[in-house]
Amino acid sequence: MKFHRPLFAAALALVLSVATAFAAEPYKVGDAFDAFTTKDQHEKDYTFAPGPRLVIVSFEMSAGKDANAFFAEKGATFLDEQQAVFIANIYGMPAIGRFFAMPKMKRYPHRILLADAETFLDRYPREENKLTVIRLDPAGAVTGVEFIDPEKGLPAVFAK
């Protein structure tokens, strides 16, 4: 059997592009939530493993500010007590923005996990001007995905 390099290369490219597209498919109910490692606002490493029941994600700065105000009111241990983590997207934030934003984030009493890589949030579903809330079972499987108003919806998330 003769090996045809251009055909092989094309087939390999197709397989890789399909695999990449599949890997970037947004989380939905029944999916296993992927472990990740990132840093928090104090530059401390954080590795996600099954345990938290809520993953709350802010994609925009205004939604993040509203969420941070809510969490700050609740105190430093609130997210841990609620088995929740909060992730803020900072990827693409210019250096001047980071110069001002990071010191403000460090003043919050709760942990803010930082999404600072281009593909970090690819699987996280999103709606403009909303927080994404992903609910997990104890084994780390997705049991729900919600999009909430960052100003009014957070209390209801924790009432369930």
How would you describe what is shown here?
By secondary structure, the protein is of the alpha/beta class. The protein has one domain (26-159): Glutaredoxin, CATH 3.40.30. It has helices at 5-23, 61-74, 78-81, 95-106, 154-159, and strands at 36-40, 45-48, 54-58, 84-89, 113-115, 131-136, 142-148. A seven-stranded mixed β-sheet has the order 2-1-5-4-3-6-7.
Mean pLDDT: 86
Report the end-to-end length measured between terminal Cα atoms. Answer: 62 Å
According to CATH, the homologous superfamily is Glutaredoxin
Report low-confidence residues grouped into runs of 5 or more.
Answer: 6-22
Strand content: 15-25%
Main beta-sheet strand count, sense and barrel state: 7 strands, mixed
CATH architecture: 3-Layer(aba) Sandwich
* Whole-number count of domains: 1
The fold-level CATH name is Glutaredoxin
Number of helices: 5
Shape: globular
Order of helices and strands: HEEEHHEHEEEH
Helix content: 25-40%
Overall CATH class: Alpha Beta
Structural class: alpha/beta
Strand order of the largest sheet: 2-1-5-4-3-6-7
